[in-house]
Amino acid sequence: MATEQAAEERDADSLNTDTELLEVRNLDAGYGDLQILTAVDLDVTAGEYVTIVGPNGAGKSTVMKSVFGLTTYMGGSVVFNDEKIHGFKPDEIIHKGIGYVPQNDNVFGTLTVRENLEMGAYILDEVPEDRIELQFDRFPVLRERQNQKAGTMSGGQRQMVAMARALMLDPDLLLLDEPSAGLAPDLVQEMFDRIDRINNDGTAILMVEQNAKEALRRCDRGYVLAQGENRYMDTGRALLDNEDVRQQFLGG
Ligand SMILES: Nc1ncnc2c1ncn2[C@@H]1O[C@H](COP(=O)(O)OP(=O)(O)OP(=O)(O)O)[C@@H](O)[C@H]1O
Q1: DSSP string, 117-157
Q2: What are the pLDDT digits (tens) for 4-23?
Q3: Distance from the CA of 74 to the CA of which of 31, 67, 109, 224 falls in 20 to 30 A?
Q4: At the top level of CATH, which class does the domain 19-97+174-182+206-252 belong to?
């Protein structure tokens, strides 16, 4: 028994050796004087796929914006790759290896697809052509339409442009705010498949999704947020199997 127990403890230890990428602790944040998040904790390890779900207005997007330096910091900490980044501006945070795809207004509509991707690499001296090719491999329709103005594309295609642009700097962590919003059902599955592939290529994902059940099915771990506070954290599967979570947050 003792040996079995020791083996189990070793196994448990080995599960905890994942490299911490993002560590949010006790985060208070909001807009101006208005506090939205209270004592939020959140972790993402290298290569992990994490989803945040919760009701409208829960503060999910505010968590993402806070990681990316777009809210008013009020307390706690955001640490990325062992460096405190709370209080940093978005352009500094991009340099650290975080890409962000907001829900709305996420492309330069008057620029072509290719120009949008080039903009994604604006902090580099030269646009790396191989990175553009990599995004075209990931999103073939963007290769076909590379000279089309992004503003004239469909919602799903614009979402691809936005994701491809955010991937141009090969971030360690990609923040995706409702990537399936407004897409037709068949395109939703396609979008989730693409996100799986990006994650399989090694990029950690932190995603907010209204399509909560599908997101929890796909991710490694999930957080349920309500009224700006953590409510539940577990593997996606365990959250889907949790009766309280289902009843309160997943529509039964
Ligand atoms: N720029 C802003 N200024 C002031 N309040 C804001 C701002 N953006 C969001 N809020 C408020 O913060 C709260 C949380 O909004 P947030 O968008 O983070 O929620 P959410 O969980 O992502 O919701 P949804 O699922 O509806 O997108 C809401 O009450 C919202 O009105």
Answers
A1: HHHHTTTSSS--HHHHHHHHHHSHHHHHTTTSBGGGS-HHH
A2: 554 455 444 444 457 999 99
A3: 224
A4: alpha beta
Q: Are the C-beta atoms of residues 92 and 69 closer than 8 Å to each other?
A: yes
Give the pLDDT score at 86. Answer: 95
Atom 4 in ligand 1: residue holding the nearest Cα = 31
As for ligand 1, residues whose beta carbon falls within 6 Å of it are 31, 34, 36, 54, 56-62
Q: What is the pLDDT of residues 138-186, one digit of tens each?
A: 999 999 999 999 999 998 899 999 999 999 999 999 999 999 988 888 8
Q: 58 CA to middle of ligand 1, Å?
A: 7
Distance (Å) from CA 176 to ligand 1 centroid: 16
CA distance 22 to 173: 8
CA distances to 41, 130, 212, 231, 235 from 224, rounded to whole Å, are 11, 38, 10, 5, 11
As a dihedral over the C-alpha atoms of residue 44, residue 164, residue 202, residue 199, rounded to 10 degrees, the angle is: 70
CA 60 / ligand 1 centre spacing (Å): 8
Closest atom of ligand 1 to 63 CA is: 18
3-class SS of residue 71: coil
Task: Give domain limits for the chain.
Answer: 19-97+174-182+206-252
Give the integer Cα–Cα distance in Å for 130 and 84: 31
* CA 75 to ligand 1 centroid distance, Å: 19
Residues 63 and 71 sit within 8 Å (Cβ to Cβ): no
